[in-house]
Specification:
Elements lengths: L1 H18 L49 E2 L2 E10 L2 E9 L6 E7 L11 E9 L14 E9 H5 L3 E6 L2 E6 L2
Parallel strand pairs: 5-7
Antiparallel strand pairs: 1-5, 2-3, 3-6, 4-5, 7-8
Amino acid sequence: MSLSRNLLLALTATLALAACGQSRLNPMNWGSSKRVDVQQPADGGVNTLLPKRTTFSLRDDDEDEDNRVLVSDVTQMRVEQTPSGAIVYATGVAARQGAYSAELRPLGEKAEPDENGVLTLDFVVAYPSQNTPVGGTSLRQVHTARSLSKQTLETTKLIRVVGANGARETRRN
């Protein structure tokens, strides 16, 4: 028993000493962040080692136009109150499988109601460039949501979510 006790004591002392100082065994030294200065090319050109894109996007950044289209059918819509306003949830059925990048897009640049107090949101989706099968309804379901501020809701009487084959709407209580 005394041999295992002495071995345990020696191992504990070794680890305790290794934790002190600049040893590679010290966990505090693992992954230390050292600053690396990026050198600009001498000719003043662009540093080709730096990435051109800084964010990840499913859409090609070279395309400025939005190629999304209205979802075929809007099957469900609900509005839930939040402390900062409300969230509009919508479910739709796409024309075929593979729809992505769903959004409730306002008609204008901002989500603001028209002069009659109607806030219209287009339910848009993007489709893959290659053909995909139609499939069943459950395979084509798409869900999305949009947050609305209290200021927007103050002048809104009706919220309408539009699809290609119809719309769903709800009024304020």
